[in-house]
Amino acid sequence: MIQQVENPIIEVHDLSVSYEKKPVLWDVDLSLPSGKLIGIIGPNGAGKSTLLKSIMGLLPLSSGYINILDKPLKEVRDKISYVPQRESVDWDFPTSVFDVVMMGRYGQLGLLKRPKKADKEIVMDSLSKVGMEAFKDRQISQLSGGQQQRVFLARALAQQAEIYFMDEPFAGVDAATEKAIVELLRQMSAEKKTVIVVHHDLQSVARYFDWIILLNMRLVASGPIENAFTPELLQETYGGKLTLLTEISELIQKNRFPNRE
Amino acid sequence: MLENLRNFFSFQDINVLYVSLGTIILGASAAVVGSFTFLRKRALIGDAIAHAILPGICLAFLLSGTKNYLLLIVGAFISGWVSILLVDYISKNSKIKEDTAIGLILSVFFGFGVLLLTYIQQSGNSAQTGLDSFLFGKAASMVQQDVIIFSIISILLVVMVGLFYKELQLISFDENFARSIGLPVKGLIFMLSSLTVLAVVTGIQAVGVVLMAALLITPTAAAKYWSGYLPRILLIAAFIGGFSGFSGTAISYVAPNMPTGPWVVMVLSLIAFISIFFSPKKGIIAKAIIQVRHRQRIQDENIIKTFFQIAEAEESFGEPKTIKMIREKRYYSDKLILKILRRLKRHGYLSQTKEGYFLSSFGQKKAARLVKLHRLWELYLTDYLRIAPDHVHEDADTIEHLITPELEKRLEEKLGYPEVDPHNSKIPYD
């Protein structure tokens, strides 16, 4: 069940990606509609984060290309926003909540430019949207996990993008933060933003998203939740490992063999 | 010796003033540049660069035959960069991990550098005088021209960091995000490495290449104990770096036979040591004091609670309790109990008469609250975590000291103000 769409906001064409020489994504062909809340679902090691990072241009591609808003990534960087996994940074870094959210403005600001008053207002506005304005001068090392995640989301909001990519925003957050994030996602969706979320918890998938991508080293399904979130497709995604594919991948890594000429 | 000291601090010799200013500037600048290497967790790379520029300097000298600083800097720059690239190449394309690669490259380059240096010294070239101080530094051997060149480079380095402050901060905190917004991350890292090479170069004569790594890393490591905010850390690090540089110069004039670098490192390390131990919030001693306070609080509260427990068992609320009675309930030594009782008396929880000790009304309230928290938590553990009633006492004994008034309220509401705990003991409310 892979549904392609007319005038896609994101088009992934024949994407293969290796991580440390080991292929983790094989020939992903995907097109996504605009203005939807999209969940990327799959087991551990399925390549969910890898797909996100590839779209953001953070990993070298073995094959394929990606178009966003019908253009290559470089031309639309100011229209997209990326929320990395919370654990990917060192929260002991000596900086304040305000300064981290201000990083969301750097893309628009450009090199060598100082933040202006308008940027500061945008930062404060983003902080209030995630309920963190009272924490603006707090050192980030003093935040709880949920608060850290909110700061990351505020930074993304400060980018004022059209498409948002979030890597596991629900991982390890408290119930209040989870509710706040869901609220935020709905709001963004109402404003016609497209939000793509790597998600782990199958139970909440149907409540949160209106389009899902099922992934396990290859694309299993992509479509509206009512068509793609079926027991058969989930079984195909989570059940029965593709042992042969895994073994080939490991063989490629071991022998440092190219998976494309 | 004393005379030297007086001479130095009178700054009558204009050269002394120049060299002092110069070392302050280069110390501060190296600290600022080094901050970002430190924050990117690449402290060892600074050390590798510091060692690896030696062969570059020597080769530049051999080829030109003069001590032309511009050429020496070019040589240092090239060999510094070759070492960084080699470390990168080895860690990416072999099974050798980065720290091992750094160790390998550092020693090969430095070994080669010392070979060349020895060769130069024995070649009898008259221009080579002073080159031997490149290893461990000799601030006093600097002349005005050296000072001016190195100071200008140092100031330029700080200006560059200032200009690219927001980008350097971002790539140090979240490199992937920096790349996602299209920052030229590779270019910025190249720039930072180049600044590091140049920072080491500025210190070759005053501090020596070998120990410049300390001036890159240690000020930030120490500054992190005094602040948690990057702009302030940079300022403090700059101050520490400048001060250490200056003190090295002072030593160099007062004791002319001493190499400067080791003294700079000694001063630096002393500051770092003081920071690690005595910083008021993050220092080891401050943390130890907090530990002791916690332990005392637990002991105090346990004894207060014991008063309540004895009274509850014997229905003797308001009657005096003796140390012997307390010890039967709480297995502390007599000495410890006496100490705690004294502390509690001082804080107004207790009063003492001939018959024994009484809880004040303040103390009684506290005792009832502690018992309540203990029993509520036991109930929470059995009801919500499904832990057997005979296993919850130890947990509750710790947690009762930690629960804040807000948590207390939530706990009461969640459990619905229960009457008794899992062992059927009554829960006391105000």
From TrEMBL, chain A:
Q: Which UniProt keywords apply?
A: ATP-binding, Nucleotide-binding, Transport
Q: In terms of domain of life, where is this protein from?
A: Bacteria
In this chain the ABC transporter domain maps to 10-242
| One Pfam family it belongs to | ABC_tran
- GO MF term (any one): ATP binding
Family matches, as PROSITE patterns = ABC_TRANSPORTER_1 (PS00211), ABC_TRANSPORTER_2 (PS50893)
Question: What family classification does the UniProt entry report for this protein?
Answer: Belongs to the ABC transporter superfamily.
Q: By what name is this protein known?
A: Manganese transport system ATP-binding protein MntB
TrEMBL record, chain B:
What do the Gene Ontology cellular component annotations say?
Answer: ATP-binding cassette (ABC) transporter complex
Q: Which UniProt keywords apply?
A: Cell membrane, Membrane, Transmembrane, Transmembrane helix, Transport
Q: Which residues form the Iron dependent repressor metal binding and dimerisation domain?
A: 363-428
* Swiss-Prot/TrEMBL GO biological process terms: cellular response to iron ion; response to zinc ion; transmembrane transport
Question: Is Membrane among the key words of this record?
Answer: yes
Protein topology in the membrane: Multi-pass membrane protein
> What is the recorded name of this protein?
Manganese transport system membrane protein MntC
* UniProt organism field: Marivirga lumbricoides
